[in-house]
Amino acid sequence: MKITFYGHASLGIEVGGKHILVDPFISANPLAAHINIDTLAADYILLTHAHGDHILDVEAIASRTNAVIVSNAEIAGYYGAKGFQSHPMNHGGSWKFDFGKVKYVNAIHSSSFPDGSYGGNPGGFVIEGEHKNIYIAGDTALIMDMKLIPLRTKLDLAILPIGDNFTMDVEDAIIASDFVECDKILGYHFDTFGYIEINKEDAIRKFFNKGKDLMLLEIGNSIDL
Question: What phi and psi, each to the nearest 5 degrees, are found at residue 45?
Fold first, then answer.
Protein backbone atom coordinates (compact mmCIF):
# COMPACT_ATOMS: atom_id res chain seq x y z
CA MET A 1 0.00 0.00 0.00
CA LYS A 2 1.44 3.34 -1.11
CA ILE A 3 0.10 6.62 0.28
CA THR A 4 0.86 10.00 -1.31
CA PHE A 5 0.13 13.37 0.29
CA TYR A 6 -1.29 15.96 -2.10
CA GLY A 7 -1.68 18.74 0.46
CA HIS A 8 -4.35 19.76 2.96
CA ALA A 9 -6.50 16.61 3.38
CA SER A 10 -5.88 15.21 -0.10
CA LEU A 11 -4.36 11.74 -0.42
CA GLY A 12 -3.58 9.21 -3.09
CA ILE A 13 -3.64 5.53 -2.18
CA GLU A 14 -2.39 2.70 -4.37
CA VAL A 15 -3.63 -0.68 -3.16
CA GLY A 16 -4.63 -3.91 -4.86
CA GLY A 17 -3.68 -2.50 -8.24
CA LYS A 18 -6.20 0.33 -7.86
CA HIS A 19 -5.77 4.08 -7.44
CA ILE A 20 -7.82 5.90 -4.82
CA LEU A 21 -8.01 9.65 -4.23
CA VAL A 22 -9.29 11.03 -0.95
CA ASP A 23 -10.80 14.52 -0.60
CA PRO A 24 -9.14 16.09 -3.67
CA PHE A 25 -8.55 19.79 -3.00
CA ILE A 26 -5.45 20.45 -5.05
CA SER A 27 -5.87 22.90 -7.94
CA ALA A 28 -6.70 25.90 -5.70
CA ASN A 29 -4.12 25.10 -3.03
CA PRO A 30 -1.05 27.28 -3.68
CA LEU A 31 1.07 24.89 -1.60
CA ALA A 32 0.25 22.15 -4.14
CA ALA A 33 0.84 24.22 -7.27
CA HIS A 34 3.31 21.64 -8.56
CA ILE A 35 0.65 18.89 -8.59
CA ASN A 36 -1.20 18.56 -11.90
CA ILE A 37 -4.61 16.99 -11.32
CA ASP A 38 -4.81 16.02 -14.99
CA THR A 39 -2.07 13.45 -14.42
CA LEU A 40 -3.59 11.79 -11.36
CA ALA A 41 -4.99 8.29 -11.76
CA ALA A 42 -8.24 7.49 -9.96
CA ASP A 43 -10.40 4.39 -9.91
CA TYR A 44 -12.19 5.61 -6.79
CA ILE A 45 -12.62 8.96 -5.05
CA LEU A 46 -13.41 8.78 -1.33
CA LEU A 47 -15.01 11.85 0.24
CA THR A 48 -15.26 12.39 3.99
CA HIS A 49 -17.66 15.34 3.71
CA ALA A 50 -18.90 18.02 1.32
CA HIS A 51 -16.87 21.12 2.18
CA GLY A 52 -15.21 22.86 -0.73
CA ASP A 53 -11.72 22.24 0.62
CA HIS A 54 -12.38 18.50 0.24
CA ILE A 55 -14.37 18.23 -3.00
CA LEU A 56 -12.98 21.00 -5.23
CA ASP A 57 -11.43 18.74 -7.88
CA VAL A 58 -13.88 15.83 -7.73
CA GLU A 59 -15.80 16.59 -10.90
CA ALA A 60 -12.76 17.39 -13.02
CA ILE A 61 -11.00 14.20 -11.99
CA ALA A 62 -14.07 11.95 -12.13
CA SER A 63 -15.05 13.28 -15.57
CA ARG A 64 -11.62 12.31 -16.92
CA THR A 65 -11.12 9.01 -15.09
CA ASN A 66 -14.71 7.76 -14.65
CA ALA A 67 -13.85 7.11 -11.00
CA VAL A 68 -16.47 5.81 -8.59
CA ILE A 69 -17.26 8.40 -5.91
CA VAL A 70 -17.62 6.78 -2.48
CA SER A 71 -19.15 8.76 0.38
CA ASN A 72 -22.24 9.12 2.51
CA ALA A 73 -25.62 8.68 0.87
CA GLU A 74 -26.22 12.41 0.40
CA ILE A 75 -22.87 13.13 -1.24
CA ALA A 76 -23.05 10.02 -3.40
CA GLY A 77 -26.56 10.98 -4.45
CA TYR A 78 -25.47 14.54 -5.25
CA TYR A 79 -22.84 13.31 -7.69
CA GLY A 80 -24.99 10.46 -8.96
CA ALA A 81 -27.64 12.99 -9.98
CA LYS A 82 -24.96 14.72 -12.05
CA GLY A 83 -24.24 11.50 -13.92
CA PHE A 84 -21.14 10.37 -12.05
CA GLN A 85 -20.63 6.83 -10.82
CA SER A 86 -21.15 6.68 -7.08
CA HIS A 87 -21.36 4.26 -4.18
CA PRO A 88 -23.39 5.42 -1.15
CA MET A 89 -22.44 4.46 2.40
CA ASN A 90 -23.44 5.43 5.91
CA HIS A 91 -21.95 5.31 9.37
CA GLY A 92 -21.02 1.86 10.66
CA GLY A 93 -21.49 0.25 7.26
CA SER A 94 -18.76 -1.42 5.23
CA TRP A 95 -18.32 -2.70 1.68
CA LYS A 96 -15.83 -5.01 0.00
CA PHE A 97 -14.43 -3.25 -3.06
CA ASP A 98 -11.96 -4.82 -5.47
CA PHE A 99 -9.07 -3.19 -3.60
CA GLY A 100 -10.20 -4.09 -0.08
CA LYS A 101 -12.80 -3.43 2.58
CA VAL A 102 -13.97 0.08 3.43
CA LYS A 103 -15.91 1.08 6.53
CA TYR A 104 -17.49 4.51 6.96
CA VAL A 105 -17.02 5.69 10.55
CA ASN A 106 -18.09 8.64 12.65
CA ALA A 107 -16.58 12.10 12.63
CA ILE A 108 -17.72 15.25 14.40
CA HIS A 109 -17.68 18.21 12.03
CA SER A 110 -20.12 19.86 9.61
CA SER A 111 -20.88 19.08 5.98
CA SER A 112 -22.45 21.22 3.28
CA PHE A 113 -21.62 21.82 -0.35
CA PRO A 114 -20.25 25.21 -1.45
CA ASP A 115 -23.68 26.00 -2.94
CA GLY A 116 -25.24 25.53 0.51
CA SER A 117 -26.95 22.21 -0.20
CA TYR A 118 -26.96 19.49 2.42
CA GLY A 119 -23.90 17.25 2.53
CA GLY A 120 -25.08 14.65 5.01
CA ASN A 121 -23.13 13.80 8.13
CA PRO A 122 -19.32 13.84 7.95
CA GLY A 123 -17.29 10.69 8.41
CA GLY A 124 -13.97 8.94 8.12
CA PHE A 125 -12.82 5.70 6.53
CA VAL A 126 -11.18 2.52 7.74
CA ILE A 127 -9.56 0.73 4.80
CA GLU A 128 -8.38 -2.86 5.01
CA GLY A 129 -6.33 -3.94 2.01
CA GLU A 130 -3.24 -6.00 1.13
CA HIS A 131 -2.77 -7.01 4.77
CA LYS A 132 -2.40 -3.33 5.76
CA ASN A 133 -5.09 -1.33 7.51
CA ILE A 134 -5.41 2.44 7.70
CA TYR A 135 -7.78 4.93 9.32
CA ILE A 136 -8.51 8.23 7.58
CA ALA A 137 -10.19 10.38 10.20
CA GLY A 138 -11.43 13.18 7.96
CA ASP A 139 -12.17 16.52 9.58
CA THR A 140 -13.11 15.70 13.13
CA ALA A 141 -12.91 16.52 16.78
CA LEU A 142 -11.54 13.96 19.21
CA ILE A 143 -14.41 11.51 19.79
CA MET A 144 -14.89 8.47 21.99
CA ASP A 145 -16.17 6.53 18.96
CA MET A 146 -12.54 6.22 17.86
CA LYS A 147 -12.18 3.60 20.58
CA LEU A 148 -14.48 1.32 18.57
CA ILE A 149 -12.06 1.04 15.65
CA PRO A 150 -9.44 -1.27 17.24
CA LEU A 151 -12.21 -3.58 18.46
CA ARG A 152 -12.55 -4.69 14.83
CA THR A 153 -9.37 -3.60 13.05
CA LYS A 154 -5.70 -3.52 13.99
CA LEU A 155 -4.32 -0.41 12.31
CA ASP A 156 -0.96 0.01 10.62
CA LEU A 157 -1.42 3.76 10.14
CA ALA A 158 -3.76 6.48 11.42
CA ILE A 159 -4.18 9.60 9.28
CA LEU A 160 -5.28 12.39 11.60
CA PRO A 161 -5.98 16.13 11.27
CA ILE A 162 -3.68 18.22 13.45
CA GLY A 163 -4.30 21.84 12.38
CA ASP A 164 -6.66 22.89 15.19
CA ASN A 165 -9.42 25.53 14.85
CA PHE A 166 -11.61 23.44 12.50
CA THR A 167 -10.46 20.01 13.75
CA MET A 168 -8.40 18.36 16.47
CA ASP A 169 -5.13 19.92 17.50
CA VAL A 170 -1.87 18.04 18.07
CA GLU A 171 -2.62 17.20 21.69
CA ASP A 172 -6.05 15.77 20.85
CA ALA A 173 -4.56 13.86 17.92
CA ILE A 174 -2.13 12.20 20.33
CA ILE A 175 -5.11 11.08 22.42
CA ALA A 176 -6.87 9.93 19.24
CA SER A 177 -3.87 7.75 18.40
CA ASP A 178 -4.26 6.16 21.84
CA PHE A 179 -7.96 5.59 21.20
CA VAL A 180 -7.34 3.85 17.87
CA GLU A 181 -4.30 2.02 19.30
CA CYS A 182 -1.91 3.12 16.57
CA ASP A 183 1.45 4.78 17.18
CA LYS A 184 2.27 5.45 13.51
CA ILE A 185 0.51 8.63 12.42
CA LEU A 186 0.38 10.65 9.23
CA GLY A 187 -0.67 14.21 10.00
CA TYR A 188 -2.78 16.23 7.62
CA HIS A 189 -5.16 19.23 7.44
CA PHE A 190 -2.51 21.76 8.50
CA ASP A 191 -0.69 24.84 7.09
CA THR A 192 -3.02 25.34 4.09
CA PHE A 193 -4.20 28.72 5.38
CA GLY A 194 -3.72 30.92 8.41
CA TYR A 195 -6.25 29.32 10.73
CA ILE A 196 -4.47 25.97 10.65
CA GLU A 197 -0.79 26.84 10.53
CA ILE A 198 1.27 24.80 12.99
CA ASN A 199 4.80 24.45 14.32
CA LYS A 200 5.75 21.19 12.63
CA GLU A 201 8.87 20.54 14.67
CA ASP A 202 6.94 21.04 17.90
CA ALA A 203 4.19 18.67 16.70
CA ILE A 204 6.68 15.93 15.84
CA ARG A 205 8.39 16.36 19.21
CA LYS A 206 5.12 16.09 21.13
CA PHE A 207 4.27 12.80 19.42
CA PHE A 208 7.84 11.54 19.92
CA ASN A 209 7.66 12.31 23.64
CA LYS A 210 4.65 9.98 23.83
CA GLY A 211 6.50 7.20 22.02
CA LYS A 212 4.73 7.85 18.71
CA ASP A 213 5.90 8.55 15.16
CA LEU A 214 4.26 11.56 13.49
CA MET A 215 5.03 11.83 9.78
CA LEU A 216 4.50 15.15 8.01
CA LEU A 217 5.08 14.55 4.32
CA GLU A 218 6.07 17.18 1.81
CA ILE A 219 3.33 17.61 -0.78
CA GLY A 220 3.79 15.03 -3.51
CA ASN A 221 5.84 12.68 -1.32
CA SER A 222 4.78 9.14 -0.44
CA ILE A 223 5.18 6.39 2.12
CA ASP A 224 4.90 2.63 1.63
CA LEU A 225 3.26 0.37 4.18
Answer: -125, 115
